[in-house]
Structures are given as structure tokens and as C-alpha cells.
Amino acid sequence: MRFEGLVRSTVKDIKEYVPGRSIEEIAKKYDLEPAIIIKLGSNENPLGPSPLVVEAIKERAGKVHLYPQVDALDLRKAISGHTGFGVNNIVVSGNGMDGILDTMMRLFMCPGAESIIPIPTFSYYEIATLANGGKPVFVMRETDFGIDPEKIINNVSENTRMIFICSPNNPSGNSICEDDARKILGSKGTMIFIDEAYADFSENNLSALVKEYDNLIIGRTFSKAFGLAGMRMGYAIVPEWLCREYMKVMTPFSVDVLSSSAGIAALKDHEYLKRSIDTVKKGRVQLMKGLGSSCKVYPSEANFILIDVSPHEANEVLEELLKKGIIVRDCISFRGAGKSLIRITVGTEKQNKKVIGALISIL
Ligand SMILES: Cc1ncc(COP(=O)(O)O)c(C=O)c1O
Known about the structure:
β9 and β10 form a beta hairpin. The protein folds into two domains: 2-48 and 271-362, Aspartate Aminotransferase, domain 1 (Alpha-Beta Complex), CATH 3.90.1150; 61-268, Aspartate Aminotransferase, domain 2 (3-Layer(aba) Sandwich). By secondary structure, it is of the alpha/beta class. The model has no long low-confidence stretch (mean pLDDT 96). The chain contains twelve helices and 13 strands. The strands form three sheets. It has a seven-stranded mixed sheet, sandwiched between helices. It has a four-stranded antiparallel sheet with strand order 9-10-13-12. Pyridoxal-5'-phosphate is lined by residues 43, 96-98, 122, 166, 170, 195, 197, 221, 223, 229, 234.
């Protein structure tokens, strides 16, 4: 007990990260057969992994007694080929984009420093800021979840080190337009982290701006379109100066041998990537059309859609879905999201049909 006092005081303010529910948890709670449960709560890829990835992991399994490359050079070269940026513009993490966010916060945050977070959004920006001694400054998004660049700029102070912009935003699915991003990037001397975890499913991405702005970080992940959430790999496109600084503080050997091979294989499987993007684009339309007459559905550029179930409360609707073996995510734990929003990951055609039928009957 007396050792708790040694923990940094800012950590006391952190609310634990709330993940989506797991199949095992729901099967146990509602006495359901795990095989009948559909999991549309964590924005995972419904296609399973690419067969090339599975093959690459098997092939490399006999090498796990050796350390991987300290700087993940082969993986970074493969990402460089995929993105068109130089190897010295690519940094990686073996703990998903969460790991990238964490390392960036170790670089930029300190007691007294601030980050600006337009909400509702992905909660790890807040946790990573607090865990590194900084203070999150929250700015409400507009009613359609858009960002007003002036509001962001007005909140920049001499202590601001980072502005987080999730685009497409989790949980709302909308992205920031280039003009607004430029206004924020060019306004004051602060870093901007544009989180493009879901940009593979959108027609918009802002990575080209890294060539123009020395204060821009574009975060990406293998967890969504590449179907590798369980391998935990993320990367970022950054200016070269930042790549050098990142390498100093990242944990050495951050990407393990199996993940690195899996990532390289995933980048080669163009057919899988296309199929996963097509599945999401078709599924989004199916969900929008299927649910549009029962509740408000927000337009989405990501692999999930957001619905407003008011006058019902999201947790009540969620509970009814869980009883039927359908896992989705209520947004109550997202700061500033209110009590009536539910986020549904786009699944296969069959899964989408099931969730539409269940929701229509509940609503
Ligand atoms: C917006 C956003 N950024 C980052 C992440 C973290 O991704 P990763 O699995 O690469 O850690 C998520 C995960 O769902 C997310 O929604």
C-alpha cells in the first residue's frame, strides 16, 4: 500500500482503457456457444488473416530464438515500398499504433506540456498524454463530429506540444479535409499527429503533406485493412528529423521476428488488401441502407458505422444485442459521446444482415 505513493501523480488521473468485449466473456456471461457469436465491436477484419501471412509466420517460427533486426529495417523497407516514402521517413512499433503513440509521447510530453484532443475520439491519446506527465486539453467536435480548425488553434498555448486528429475519426467515421488540416498545421509551432488507422477504407489520406510540413506525423496500423490486430504492429510516416529522434527512445527490437515477417507478407498480398477494402465498402452501404429507417446513421469512411439509438440508451440496446450473441460497442466510455451512440464494425454480408435484423427488432 505505501508504495502506491511512489507512482507519479498524473497516473492517478488515468481512467483505464476500455476495450471492446471478447467472445469468451460474452459466451460465459450469456451462456452462449462461442461459435454462434459475432464480434463487431473492435473494428477487426472479418476476413481473417491473409494466407500469405499465415505461411510466413509458420516459415519463420523456427527462428524465434534469435533477436530481430534492432531497427526493423526489412519491414521499414517494405512499408517504404508500399507508401512511396523513404525508409528514413518510416518508424515502426511492435505494439500497434498504440506503441507509436506511446513513443511519440515519450518524445514530446513532460510535466506542464499539453496535448489538444478533439472529442469524442480514440481514448489512448488521453492515456498516453497523462502517462507521460502531460495535460490533455479537450475540444468538442461539432454536432456532425467535424473539426472547427479555429477552435483547435484558439486552444493552442505556449505549452502545447501535440494536436491529435483522428481521421477517419473513431467512433464517428468522418475525416478532416486537407484545407482544415493545413490551417492547423501552419498555424502555430506544435506537432500534429494525424491518426490514419482507418484511412485504407477512405478515399482521403493526408500522408503527402509530410513532404511539406516538418511538424506532421501520420499514424498507421496493420490491425485493420491488413487484418493483423493480433500481431500488434503499427507504423508512422514522419519527417526525417523525427525518425532519428524516435530511434533513440523506441524500445530496441520493438518488432518481433514473427510480426515483422507477417507485416512484410501482408504488404505483398494486394489481392487480400483489395478484398478487405471492398468488403468494408460494400458492407458500409448494406448497414447504412438496412438501418437508415430505424435510427440515425452517420456517414462513415472507416470499417465501422456509428448509429444514434435515441430515445433508447446505448447500453440497453447493447445488452439486448449481446443476449443474441452480437457484440458491438456502445460509446459511453468515449469522452463527450453521450449515452445514445453505438459503433458497429462492418462485418461479412451475413454478419451485417444479422445485426441489421436484430437492431430493427430491438428499436
Ligand atoms: C483510431 C485508432 N487509432 C489507433 C488504434 C490502435 O491500433 P493498433 O491496433 O495498431 O494499436 C485504434 C484501435 O482500434 C484506433 O481505433
